[in-house]
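Lab notebook page, bench 4
Experiment: in silico fold of construct C2
Operator: M.H.
Input chain length: 300 residues
Purpose: comparison with the prior construct
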Amino acid sequence: MTRHVAVMMGGWSAEREVSLVSGAAVARSLADAGIKVTPIDVQRDMGALMTRLYPRPDAIFNALHGRYGEDGCVQGLLDILDIPYTHSGLLASALAMNKPMAKRLFAAAGIPVPEHVIVSSNQIRAGDVMERPYVIKPLNEGSSVGVHIVHEGDNDPLFGESGWPYGDQVMVEEFIPGRELTVSVMGDRPLAVTEIKTARDFYDYDAKYASGGSSHVVPAEIDAPIYDEAMRLALMAHQTLGCRGVTRADLRCDGDDLYLLEINTQPGMTPTSLVPEQAAHVGLSFQDLCVWMVDNAECG
């Protein structure tokens, strides 16, 4: 049994505050389960991080979100140190965070995804590169950071005076209307389908994390064949990238057609998060979920 777990949280990505909330909730839960917990607020100082990892923990609960914590960087460090950690490994983490590469692999596996193009921010400013409505996204951010829907008739500057802060390139993706669905996968088991309802344009950062930003219907009230297909596609996406532990797949349902938007290799563990809700739906408490994740931590 895992006796000592270091919970890595915080970081310096755009999702730092959410990560701190996730990490604090996980740390409390593991401590309540009788496990020694060392919380680590990860800063951009690898020497300090290495110091905090001694004495060596039995496992790391990686509660970091976004760049550097979710994209293979920290995973590579932990592989070198040979310390088991939760969630996906280096390669799967890097692939999932790189939206264009992940979509290419999903499409090759037969998973339906929205059409997209990769362009420069200057091309976006010069005019539409796709028929409206469309979605603009950073290539490698999570939690809907930087995502924006461009509707027919929108005239506002897309990036403002500060420009596009997420690199030189932008993903422009066709907008899929319909219902917002999500499926958590735990190991080799899809847990449930949740429909996300929000008054906002889509399930953006505020809808995800602000109190009252969205409501979750679990299980989703959709026809059984669509429900089963959403579960199948989520597991297929998880396996296509070689993910492990817990992931969450986000989909759109347009009539009877399902489209995979992306897969999250380190979904939130906050009080409003979807994975703990789906775990509870199948009879797993938050503590059960956290303990399972550290007991199934791997390295390499």
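Observations: DSSP finds ten helices and twelve strands in the chain. The first strand starts at residue 4 and ends at 10.
Next step: discuss at group meeting.
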